[in-house]
Amino acid sequence: MPYVLGIDIGCTTTAAAVARRWGAGxxxxxxxxxxxxxxxxPSTLHxxxxxxxxxxxxxxxxxxxxxxxxxxxxxxxIPVVVDGDAYPAxxxxxxxxxxxxxxxxxxxxxxxxxxxxxxxxxxxxxRRELLHRALTEIGLPRVTLLPAPVxxxxxxxxxxxxxxxxxxxxxxxxxxxxxxxRRHHDGTYGTVGLARSLPGCGGADLTEELADHxxxxxxRGSADAGRAGAxxxxxxxxxxxxxxxxxxxxxxxxxxxxELPAGPTRVxxxxxxxxxxxxxxxxMTVDLLLDAVRSAGLTPAELxxxxxxxxxxRLPLVAELLGAAFPCPVQVGPEPELTAATGAALAxxxxxxxxLR
Length: 357
What we know:
It contains nine helices and 19 strands.
């Protein structure tokens, strides 16, 4: 069945969605299963012994042959070094996009009619051209590149957002992005003003705040504080804290579960405790979004909505602080980590059938 593909390559996570032809129109987009039965995959690549690039496995990160967080470096003068060889970031990003397209091709039985890839709102013509060229070189010549805030707006429009002007709050894995979008007369969206970004203030950083708290709790409960810290495997701690972070979006109390040499260990944490840990960081993101609105010559009262995207955007504290700062609806989907990719698939439908919405 003919289909279109939307891809969102974030700093830490990649997602994709397909929409299939359905009569004269298109079906609702569905996420693509990418890795180990999940609808997301790590934004990592691994250089194998024969020189081929494959999806990276986080467990082998640090071996010098696995790279991550390269998509935001497209256009940088300094290349990414993998096992002693230099690769432009746009080449790595294109390879990952090609891998995603291949997963969709295998699942759907053929190539997509159109592909839309989202990119940071702050990119200019130069970076888009670099990625276009890299995509063409790997066999994806007709890809449409759209700013992530635009694909986020497409997603929310499909869910009922009918306003003309919105702020887009994108809480990615390692970067926060604030932008404004406006609906055009033809129903498509474009960015307004200058996007703002805040590196080092993403979901992974919120997880690390919880990890620091857990380390402190373990140290206080140990006669040998140094030994307690050494017993915690960093990757396992991060995984456990990330799981707890997601659980606290739906429950008010949970445990960070760890396997230590002394045996299984539980560190209880409440939503209130976690929110106090991350409140300064989340407040910074809200302030940056307000700054983006004001720098565009607008006021919060002129917005029709604040549209959310990114896995950590589901945190209740995010909606709470945004609701206090913006006198308009704050909208978040049930799976915000898939928002940009799903919106990209919706935009891809318009590439093939621009008059069908």
